[in-house]
Design brief:
3 copies of one chain form a homotrimer. Chain A contains 11 helices and 9 strands. Chain A has helices at 15-30, 53-65, 87-97, 110-117, 133-147, 165-174, 194-202, 214-217, 237-243, 251-254, 285-303; strands at residues 43-48, 69-73, 100-105, 122-127, 153-158, 180-185, 207-211, 223-226, 262-264. The termini of chain A are close together. Chains A, B, C: Keywords: Pyrimidine biosynthesis, Transferase.
Chain lengths: 307, 307, 307
């Protein structure tokens, strides 16, 4: 039962519970009209203690497309709520007005504290560099959509794998499925942290390999999950000049990939995917953004117990 | 008839008119579903020239839960409306788009001027340190709910009684009911102003007493209305150290109170009510916040003439 | 067919297409109830990269009064959307969530770029000093309403005609109708630019005259379109002192005008129309603001193909 449950960590829900959400998201995607009034009379509160327009829009559109409504704030200045008031008091007041909360907060753990004191379900919409579970659900739902399954798959993750929150969550979440193999493409300085290797991959007997250049591994991949590499994260200028192009996906590199390999990206992109790739039918990142809305619709419908 | 009327001062409405609002608020609270569409097609404009997230949320949730919608701004920067334009012009333009306005403004009297030029009802949602009439309505409705009546009651008001806007409004508003007695607990420096004593209490033959320590009077009270005492308002450090604990409500002091004495607070609290009190069934401040939404629903339904 | 079309420049639509919009706006104005649900389930995204509360309110109220909903941001700070992301990416993500976009942007041409990449119609809600087509549509609709026709009319435009965006757009748009005559009243320094004279008025054989004082030409006008003259735009103090009153419309000057001459103004006004004029039945600027909402309702209904 997901009714009344909060979602703070991507691993809060079992794979069966995720399947419940993905199945509903699928139904909604195929027949949005049928679900367009199921949250009538319900209110989502978007408490964004730091701005994140894309995520906020996705949550708000999700609730509106279910027939519900939205109250909220979109940046710290406008939230007198926060002034001198504890998170626990704020959430108890917001519980009086809303039926479900999406909270974005610069401090790790803030949504978790909110969930402890809330009478209504709290969704972590990103807490610092920590967790962003609805992004992970979006990624899983998208992979399942294009591959029909979350098992038997080789996933390339490319970019800054050291600090990239979404990639860590994706690896953890995918490690619960069968016969998943990871190909991790990054500069040496930005490799996946040891604890992910030891406590997630090794511990669960997940196959993985590491690579420094995208072009060396393209042909193996079923999914390529791109993220950004920031110049200032390289240790020296030489390495940056030598390697930077290896983390930019372009039409040339797409020629090396399978015909049914899909490219995902959490967005926003800066220059890590060349615009020329957008027209390739395997470029799936904007569709992924749309899937994020359907996943959030399904999640909130389940939390509110209307489906 | 409340249809089309503005609410600028808590005393704008007669006690009979307030009863009309409270009766409707009561009905809505008990059967929200029945009222969930009565404002369909109506628009509330929330013009918040200074941020007050809690109040804004309460108004917006109120209108949404009546089936209406909301436009608005939540802080001065985003209101190009205000740039070089008079309040009277702004309100006339907003009147073109909305059906009722809730205005928060740092300047005393701004909502009153707005109401003079508006084609639609204006609600003062707080004008500087001046008035905040929907807070007073919330307080009265809450007292009436827990006591069944606004007469025959001993109300303790505790904290900074000199500058506390909500307390002054509460005393004025309660002075219209029968057999009300006030116990006013504050440091000497922060006693209720002379004009409240002379022009409200004495003039209306209201019984009152003043006290310096909460623990001395707890047992007499039917309602305890807590507010904050800011350290910087004390005249000297010694007094502050000697007295500060007397204005913090904790489980110990609650033992001195009647079994059916309810604790109210306009929120946000800082530390004037210890968290341990939250679990006491007499702690009523979060329910009071929820009542604020029902009162605003009833108020706007009356002003719009839909009930 | 206006379905799916963007509106970037006031001249994007033919006069026949404008008539379609104005006819629908007229129907909505006369019977709003009948149209109050035609956009149910649709979402407008208001992307305001610079604040413009009045315009934003008009768009949002328009969509809400058609039964639709709104997501959006109202100022640059809150738009993480913009950080490092191209307009083309932003609009493609917003296209996932919304059905129509109103974009305000300080950079000329930004809405045009957005429209090129958008899957959904984009409305330019003002791009720098460049275009603001829904203001022009509002002006034309209002003139048509009060005059029954957009032909056979003498329009006075008064104020800063050199930099005034709305006036340039109005002249261009009106030049497509028959027997329109312009009287352009401004200080010498702020006359209509040469290219408007040559490429719009002369080229289309439009009659026009220029005047320095409002009082000299009042009696000829069917419509007086007022805009502001900023003191700092005068070349010298002497001229300013000599002329300033000639650009302030007051009751005295209104006496010189025809009985059925209507005064329009895009708002906000500062002091270019004296408050005493507001009570004159010919003062039409607040009604014009309301017409702006009806025009936007009709425009979006057409773009969404629901009417």
């Amino acid at each position: 039962m997901l009714k009344g449950r909060s979602l703070i960590d991507p691993m809060d829900f079992s794979t069966e519970e995720l399947d419940e959400i993905f199945d509903l998201a699928h139904l909604i995607k195929n027949n949005p009209e049928e679900y367009s009034q199921i949250c009538k009379g319900r209110i989502l509160a978007t408490l964004f203690y730091e701005p994140s327009t894309r995520t906020r829009f996705s949550f708000e559109a999700a609730m509106l497309r279910l027939g519900g409504n939205v109250i909220g704030f979109s940046e710290p200045n406008s939230s007198s709520v926060s002034k001198g008031e504890s998170i626990s008091d704020t959430i108890r007041v917001v519980s009086c007005y809303a039926d479900v909360v999406a909270m974005r907060h610069p401090k790790e753990g803030a949504p978790k504290i909110a969930a402890m004191y809330s009478d209504i379900p709290v969704i972590n919409a990103g807490d610092g560099g920590h967790q962003h579970p609805t992004q992970t659900l979006t990624d899983l739902f998208t992979i399942k959509l294009v591959r029909k399954s979350l098992s038997n798959i080789t996933i390339g993750v490319c970019g800054d794998l050291k600090f990239g929150r979404t990639v860590h969550s994706l690896i953890k979440a995918m490690s619960r499925y069968e016969n998943v193999k990871f190909v991790m493409i990054s500069p040496k300085e930005l490799k996946v942290p040891e604890y992910i290797i030891n406590e997630v991959l090794e511990k669960n007997n997940i196959q993985y390999e590491e690579a420094e250049k995208l072009e060396d591994v393209m042909e193996k991949l079923d999914i390529l999950y791109m993220t950004r590499v920031q110049k200032e994260r390289f240790f020296n200028e030489e390495d940056y000049i030598r390697l930077k192009d290896s983390y930019i996906l372009d039409a040339e590199k797409m020629k090396l990939a399978k015909k049914d390999m899909f490219v995902l990206h959490p967005l926003p992109r800066v220059n890590e995917i060349a615009y020329e790739v957008d027209d390739d039918p395997r470029a799936y990142y904007f569709k992924q953004a749309k899937n994020g809305m359907y996943v959030r619709m399904a999640l909130m419908a389940k939390q509110l117990g209307v489906r």
